Amino acid sequence: MERAGGDEAAGIAIHYRDLVENHPYLVVCYLPDSTILFANTTAREFFGSELEGQRWLDYLPEEDRATNRRELATYRPEAPVRTIENPAVDANGDPRWIEWTTRALFDADDRLTHLQSVGADVTERRAAREALEKSEAELAEAQRIAHLGSWTSDFVADEIRWSDEVYRIFGLQRDEWGATHEAFMQAVHPEDRERVQRAVETALDPGGPRYDIEHRIVRPDGEVRHVYQRGTVDFDAEGRPLRMVGTVLDITERRRAEQALDHLAHHDALTELPNRNALRERLITTIEEGADKVWAVIHLGLDRFRSVNEGLGHATGDALLQQAARRLENSLQGGEYLARVGGDEFAVLATAEEGEAGITATTERLLAPFRELFQQEGGEFFLPASAGVALYPRDADEADGLLQRAAAAMAQCKAEGGNGVRYHAEEMNERARSRVALEGKLRRAVMNREGFFLHYQPKVEAGTGRILGAEALLRWQDGDGEIHSPATFIPALEQTGLIAELGRWILATACAQCRSWQEAGLPPVRMAVNLAAPQFHDPAMAATLESVLAETGLAAGDLELEVTERMLMTDIPGVIRTLGQFREMGIKLALDDFGTGYSSLAYLRQFPMDCLKIDRAFINDLGNGGGALIRAILGLGESLGVETVAEGVEEADQADFLEHHGCRALQGFLFARPLTAEAFGELLADGGRIRTQARH
């Protein structure tokens, strides 16, 4: 799929806006209650008023207001465009006739949002038309008033006579034209010739309609113009056509204005991609024309865009969205249709004729560009994406339902951790009900401090297996005895805000356990505790830490707080102050899931970190090019003078690679799953080392 480059696209957008503002037709945009949102220069000068913020109906003759008010309520999505002629009074108090072409725009719920009207002053044309209907004798005078081109096609002499205005419209000189029907047809746009010829032949039938048609012409210099023609035929007593007399009006500027408005209504200004309205219309047409086929809507959302946008500003965020749009465009194949449907969300309409395997491959192709770093103003960003897929007709048999289900599937994917694909299915409703029930259980458990306990996963030294530290991990068993997966209940705790109430208990329990091992004479380890965003941004957090350390007797240097990149990308000056407070207390700081967000060296130097934890996604992707990213992260850690820990290590080959490239500490199932405090203590008592299977 080919599109204009960034500078060219921006130029096109400016061109369309200038065209709307300066073209000679009246352009007005207003709300359903007739409040005017925008009026171009021509409209303001015509009515002698600024117009914006005023009521559109107030500029219509009083006797027509009630009719037009009723007309506003009758627009429907299936017929959004109407053309009517209305009387008006210009700034000089003169009565005029305006032909309005109005397009009504609706939201996804078919609610009328606003209307866009392009108006041409057709006072002269209307007068000319009325004169033409009265008699052929008055045509010349009507022409003088209307500045229309007039023509006569003489079928007896087989010649056509044009007025000077017609020659001007067609861009011809009198001596350049053959004055025959065949010569006229050569000036008609090739794609319109058959339609124009058919209209002429129909008008030559005594019982047929009059000649009334809009079409395109091509001037000798190649310029395409739009014209509107009307004509009447004189017949002899036997019904044979003698001549046709008519007018031609150049409506090119009006057509361009309508096209500009249509472009603005159906395209996203930032990325120049089609917008949600355009996607919806395309989807409706696709379903109507291919009802017997299988189609897919793939809804894509950037997982960590909000933190970058809020932390680094909208200019950086906008530039990243433009990059994302271009990457998606370059990933399209065949007739796939891409649109931007929200802030950081895109959607693709694709065929699904090859079944689920085919659409899975298509979705993976669209997600692949987001697994590469984004470059912007010296910074590097990892912005993975989540995808939701809904299929026609399996998941919905109409456009709005399909769009909604794809968006819901994407949201579900994000809720489950993101950076993946989810298909819509009815069982999602059951999961939603289960989520509500889970939140109710969690509220009761937090209130009563029931069922929560900690497990501890070892961090070991690469190569030796010596235990360096422990990461405290929250576990929960509800009142019915069911042990819930952390992947389920921890997001629920965070989304409901309950994690803040548990935060101090987790800190105190982990610190007390670490101190207990020390008092038992076991080898020293550092205790790592994950901080949730509400805890990290709590102004009283430093005081809470001081209190917990004092109560448990644990030295500050034996506590390590793990924070995520997302927490650091909001209010960066405040984040730096908070991290500085923790460091002044002697507490160690680790950046968790490193590599999945913003990885600019310039910013990281401002954050007083002691450790970078490489996200498990990179470890799992070692065989698919993840090694290069891991080496880059290890090099970044070395340049910053901080330790690096790789989490999610499950295979000996992964451990070998990490050790070989300088990663000091490892964590994962290869060494140990999260353990009870008693089991962890036994490991420490047994020499404080973990032996794994033989390396290859």
Automatic annotation (TrEMBL):
Residues 435-688 form the EAL domain. The keyword Transferase applies. Residues 293-426 form the GGDEF domain. One of its GO terms (molecular function) is nucleotide binding. It is found in: Cell inner membrane. Residues 82-134, 211-263 form the PAC domain. Residues 135-207 form the PAS domain. InterPro entries: Biofilm_reg_signaling (IPR052155), EAL_dom (IPR001633), EAL_sf (IPR035919), GGDEF_dom (IPR000160), Nucleotide_cyclase (IPR029787), PAC (IPR001610), PAS (IPR000014), PAS-assoc_C (IPR000700). It is a multi-pass membrane protein. Coiled coil: none annotated. It comes from the Bacteria. CDD domains: EAL, GGDEF, PAS. Keywords: Cell inner membrane, Cell membrane, Membrane, Nucleotide-binding, Repeat, Transferase, Transmembrane, Transmembrane helix. One of its GO terms (cellular component) is plasma membrane. PANTHER family: BIOFILM ARCHITECTURE MAINTENANCE PROTEIN MBAA, DIGUANYLATE CYCLASE DGCP. This is PAS domain S-box-containing protein/diguanylate cyclase (GGDEF) domain-containing protein. It comes from Thiohalospira halophila DSM 15071. The lineage of its organism: Bacteria, Pseudomonadati, Pseudomonadota, Gammaproteobacteria, Thiohalospirales.
